[in-house]
Design goal:
It comes from Lentibacillus persicus. Belongs to the class-II aminoacyl-tRNA synthetase family. Phe-tRNA synthetase alpha subunit type 1 subfamily. This protein is α+β, with helices and mostly antiparallel strands and 349 residues long. It folds into 2 domains: 2-80; 109-341, BirA Bifunctional Protein, domain 2 (2-Layer Sandwich). 40% of the residues lie in helices and 18% in strands.
């Protein structure tokens, strides 16, 4: 048995010396020191030895175990250090290399347009109001003079959640909510920017989700000429002082009379070209005098108060201002498109 133990020691130490990775070293440990290992198997035969031989063989077995364990621990340290050295060598960092530049982000083009429009109207005394995008049928339609069954509802193909809840089709509900909040007791001068939703097929000029800004001014003796002056200031501020506007009769259920506003084409200066379809004018927004029924439903006496309202699409305004030919560019997150406007925003005409 002594010879067996010595053979196990020599064999184990030789294999430990040859081991070149930690996995192989662990296999050697299990082979010789594990529950079913070579050393354990030899020790199980100690019961056949005499009482005098057992202590001697036991001492030799312990020395063999200690020698193998010590050598495995030593080789483990060497292999772990070698692995660490190799990893450090492969991951060497050259601190003399210049750092990678961090690209600075910027506001989205639509955000910049909306903020530019907000700044303009805040300067004219308007408040910025917000409202829920999930709206009730009452505020989205009925409070805007479109009762159930009204044909004008078909103009706005709606995402309904329930019979009474929907994704708002315009920001007009914010106007109705604000007027009701004021209770017909004081003037209203506000704009309401936000997202709106309609069941539309996405193409170069249409989207199922887009942005809108509506304005409302209600007070005593508000006239259509006040609306024209406001929109003229808006057009010149956003598109340039050389732009002219014109108002054409139109129809909206919440305004009477209603108008569409055109601006003169910047390409042909009103002479006519392919951009303006040879008319010299480009349609940009709608508005009109607030319908008496809308005022009355919000608690305002239509014999005392009058007002005007208008609605515009920042998407369309940005497209006209910067010559963008596809509304989908705003929503596809293409950096090549977005970075074009970091320096142009606020100044390009």
């Amino acid at each position: 048995m002594k010879d067996q133990l010595e053979m196990i020691r020599k064999e184990a130490l030789a294999k430990i010396e040859e081991a070149n990775d930690l996995k192989k070293l662990q296999e050697i440990k299990v082979t010789y020191l594990g529950k079913k290992g070579s050393l354990t198997s030899v020790l199980r035969g100690m019961g056949k030895l005499s009482e005098e031989e057992r202590p001697v063989v036991g001492e030799i077995a312990n020395k063999v175990r200690e020698a193998i364990t010590e050598e495995i621990n030593h080789k483990t340290e060497l292999l772990e250090q070698a692995e660490l050295d190799a990893k450090l060598e492969s991951e060497t960092l050259d601190v003399t290399l210049p750092g990678r530049p961090v690209e600075a982000g910027g506001p989205h083009l639509l955000t910049s347009i909306i903020e530019e429009i907000e700044d303009l109207f805040i300067g004219m005394g308007y408040e910025v109001k917000e409202g829920p995008e999930v709206e009730t049928d009452y505020f989205n339609f009925e409070a805007m003079n479109m009762p159930k069954g009204h044909p004008a509802r078909d103009m706005q193909d709606t995402f309904y959640i329930t019979n009474e809840l929907l994704l708002r089709t315009h920001t007009s509900p914010v106007q109705a909510r604000t007027m009701q909040q004021y209770g017909g007791a004081k003037p209203v001068k506000m704009i309401c920017p936000g997202k709106v939703y309609r069941r539309d097929t996405d193409d170069a000029t249409h989207s199922h989700q887009f942005t809108q800004i509506e304005g409302l001014y209600v007070d005593k003796n508000v006239r259509l000429s006040d609306l024209k002056g406001t929109l003229d200031k808006f057009a010149k501020s956003i598109f340039g002082n050389d732009r002219e506007i014109r108002l054409r009769p139109s129809f909206f259920p919440f305004t009477e009379p209603s108008v569409e506003m055109d601006i003169s084409c910047k390409v042909c200066k009103g002479a006519g070209c392919s951009v303006c379809k040879h008319s010299g004018w480009i349609e940009i927004l709608g508005g009109g005098m607030v319908h008496p029924d809308v005022l009355e439903m919000a608690g305002y006496d239509s014999k005392v108060y009058t007002g005007f309202a208008f609605g515009m699409g920042p998407d369309r305004i940005a497209m006209l201002k910067y010559g963008i030919d596809d509304i989908r560019h705003f929503y596809t997150n293409d950096k090549r498109f977005l970075t074009q406007f970091h320096h142009a925003q606020g100044g390009a005409q």
